[in-house]
Amino acid sequence: MIAAPEIPTDFNLLQESETHFSSDTDFEDIEGKNQKQGKGKTCKKGKKGPAEKGKGGNGGGKPPSGPNRMNGHHQQNGVENMMLFEVVKMGKSAMQSVVDDWIESYKHDRDIALLDLINFFIQCSGCKGVVTAEMFRHMQNSEIIRKMTEEFDEDSGDYPLTMAGPQWKKFKSSFCEFIGVLVRQCQYSIIYDEYMMDTVISLLTGLSDSQVRAFRHTSTLAAMKLMTALVNVALNLSINMDNTQRQYEAERNKMIGKRANERLELLLQKRKELQENQDEIENMMNAIFKGVFVHRYRDAIAEIRAICIEEIGIWMKMYSDAFLNDSYLKYVGWTMHDKQGEVRLKCLTALQGLYYNKELNSKLELFTSRFKDRIVSMTLDKEYDVAVQAIKLLTLVLQSSEEVLTAEDCENVYHLVYSAHRPVAVAAGEFLYKKLFSRRDPEEDGMMKRRGRQGPNANLVKTLVFFFLESELHEHAAYLVDSMWDCATELLKDWECMNSLLLEEPLSGEEALTDRQESALIEIMLCTIRQAAECHPPVGRGTGKRVLTAKEKKTQLDDRTKITELFAVALPQLLAKYSVDAEKVTNLLQLPQYFDLEIYTTGRLEKHLDALLRQIRNIVEKHTDTDVLEACSKTYHALCNEEFTIFNRVDISRSQLIDELADKFNRLLEDFLQEGEEPDEDDAYQVLSTLKRITAFHNAHDLSKWDLFACNYKLLKTGIENGDMPEQIVIHALQCTHYVILWQLAKITESSSTKEDLLRLKKQMRVFCQICQHYLTNVNTTVKEQAFTILCDILMIFSHQIMSGGRDMLEPLVYTPDSSLQSELLSFILDHVFIEQDDDNNSADGQQEDEASKIEALHKRRNLLAAFCKLIVYTVVEMNTAADIFKQYMKYYNDYGDIIKETMSKTRQIDKIQCAKTLILSLQQLFNEMIQENGYNFDRSSSTFSGIKELARRFALTFGLDQLKTREAIAMLHKYVYLEKFMTFQMSLRREDVWLPLMSYRNSLLAGGDDDTMSVISGISSRGSTVRSKKSKPSTGKRKVVEGMQLSLTEESSSSDSMWLSREQTLHTPVMMQTPQLTSTIMREPKRLRPEDSFMSVYPMQTEHHQTPLDYNRRGTSLMEDDEEPIVEDVMMSSEGRIEDLNEGMDFDTMDIDLPPSKNRRERTELKPDFFDPASIMDESVLGVSMF
Questions:
Q1: Nearest to residue 814, comparing CAs of 861, 864, 773, 769?
Q2: Each residue's pLDDT tens digit, 768-812
Q3: 671, 683, 691, 681: which is closest to 737 by C-alpha?
Q4: Would you give the DSSP letter of residue 765?
Q5: Residue-wise over 271-301: b if at least 16 C-beta within 10 A, else e?
Q6: Rg (Cα) of the chain, in Å, rounded?
Q7: pLDDT of residue 1061
């Protein structure tokens, strides 16, 4: 539906001789109230009377006559027109030669040539019809367009501008080029003949108002490009008029004796001709603007609106004297509220072209003041491309005038440097650099040649540090550096300046950096070094590493050389200065990872290497913080590279350090574990600190030759026996032992090993698993979490997967957990993961830190659950243990829904049948729990029972719509013949009584039960009862048989309905067995958890309550049809709930993480609402309100 009202297709193009194309006019005089008849120049669809036809055809000769001539013309015209369309479509020929050929044809017979041009526009719209000479002569535009509309292919909505494929790839550009060249080649004569342009404009105006999208789209594009070409002509005329006027003034100001009167007359005549041409061009532009643009910039199709906005931006930029005023700018301002991102994007790019020219700033002041807030809000646009261009536009506004944007406006852009979307962050980084870093004081000019602390970048580095601290996102320095990397490379690579700010004393009168500022500077410096050495954005930005160009590789090598030469000398000094500060030391110790280690040898820097190793050793002795120790370990690992000659020097230093630590640990441990003596706190601290250092180094280095397993085993065993071992010692002993086993496994895998090595590793691994299993029952939660995590890792590593990749020799190491271990692992998950959030755990530092601690605790629990689910997915533990996980799906959906859902998906891929049985088992467990708590006379409307039903419905949705993949699992769920094995011979004789429960159950599956809380809609009833049903296909023979079975069962059931209802209090189902006392799999033996056993959960209950639960756990076999979605509805559920459930079943990604958490973060949902509605595209409240 077209939003704008229709205009007459017979458009009267009037020549304005007195009302000129003024920059003050609004060009909205649609009814032509301001137009005056001038020179008698009128046009009605470009038609002329018979006399004029005779004059116009054949250069004033005889008009074509006779039927043969007309038929010949029509046939010839079709060939020529196809040639013109085909040439433009291919886009291979020079467009100017094509236009020149058409101009020659026009000069020979303008009717035939113009008819070819009209048919060209018709065919470019995708219409198969052809306008004949007879139609052109006798029919009105509206009639021709109506006739052409009938020629459209109704089966296809494609047309050349929207078609895909290589042949249509360049059609749009060729089409636009043709129109531009046509006007350019005709600008000196033909466009002023009062015929060609009038006819084309009238035709395009009528087509642009068509209900057919192809006509409207194509003609709007043609009209806008025609307008652009006319604007260029008008600009040239204006320039020529100005030149002529200057020449006339110069000649007239000459002395009378030297003045050439003939030249004055020629100049006056030339100026008059130029003015007349200008008037005609302005009249044409008025007609196009009013007839096409004013209506189509509000078109229902976003592409058409985008075309209009793009072209008006070109007009205002090209001919600013005529178009750059509020009368035209308002259209761009209004359209910035468009619903479609591509239209908003065109608005911003159009404005960028205007703000880029500083000479136009004075004409944009009123527009800027009116629409600045909207532009600022678009920096948070939901379309990232729009947000990027909005930031770039504000950067241009900032360059034009710094007073326009307030501090609040700038802050709204500043925080976007931390955006996860890199183009947005880079644009914001450029804005930040232009605002805070690009200006230099005059007194800094004399500092340009200075370096270091006295250099010109010193103050800018401080400014960067201040900004980083004020933004309160200290863990995101890498994002800030990456955002400014492209625009502030010179500043960010001035490591000499950063180093001098840290090491040198402040100058007289200069304020020294605070401790917090020094920490921020070190973090920023580390991020800049990493960015220069790795040449890719930080984690979270970008899709991965890209291939570097030769120039980028050379820059990378040069930067690494510069980094190494500077910090090989400076790093020992920095470590010595900040050796007691854990945060600073941790960041500084990461620098050697980015060194070119060869420079230590080629640059004769061995003494600085020795100084670095001494500082690292001192730091290891001083600190017990895990982050610091791991940083030292990684530094040794980076320096211990066998490819470089410094390896021996570093390896000796490392071995000496480990020797001392191992000897000290053994000595302390012997004293610590002496019998009969209670260890004091000092001994425990010494043992713990030494164990921390060893564990940190064992993470990155193979310490197998120091045989750390025995001492750690002794420590852990003593802790189990006595139960008074400090928790931190146990945690680090477990971790260190874990590293021992992993390093031995890596050594065996990478090299040939003996059978003794395998047996020793197997023994150590089994013993260690038993120790971890013991610590699962420890009173300390942290110890239990550590033991659980390590156990899951060990079971995963030493599972049957260890033999993959041709490593069959590792078969003796395969370890499968027994039932007791599986039970304890599952118990741990239920006790420590599926718990309510501790609301009483309030932080002393306020609500914000409390929220942060809750998020961290949730993250830890998610990791624990994921570790156990991984064991399920890789079949390390039995699949039916997942029943206790699956049954928590609804209750803990917000916290763990994604993990549980992914586990369901993976288990279904492994074994569809077993997965389906596990889902049933989880429902049975929940039902048994409810029975034990409430008894058999439970309330069907209770939240517990409704929750079980809802969970069953969610489980059904997870099967998806692919019936072939889920056929076996679905069929297994609906097998109810197993009831027959509980029947006796006497039961079969009493069909009318004892079989009633079975028949009722069958009917509930096949035809939908009558229970008031649930309705299962089968494929038969769904066609007429649900809006989600699709068109049914013809039923196959198999389908008819199934439906017949359903109908027969339904009739048989209905005949005994009353008897069933009267006996429901006394009859019992044939499946009466003792109620199981266990409601979870965690305490059961694995033999009792076989698939065929776990699927059937039987329990005694009154018949009244037996039929319904079974109804919810099963679905009729006719639910999954070839042409229908599975429809499982609860009559108590709202439509909104069903939509959410369907979305969940389709695995839509609803998470979109953009910005890191921040106090002052503005969500994208805070964008101002668009002033559009689906009916009219733009709200009348916007159009009706005065803009200025």
A1: 769
A2: 999 999 999 988 999 999 999 999 999 999 999 888 888 888 888
A3: 691
A4: H
A5: beebebbbbbbbbbbbbbbbbbbbbbbbbbb
A6: 41
A7: 33
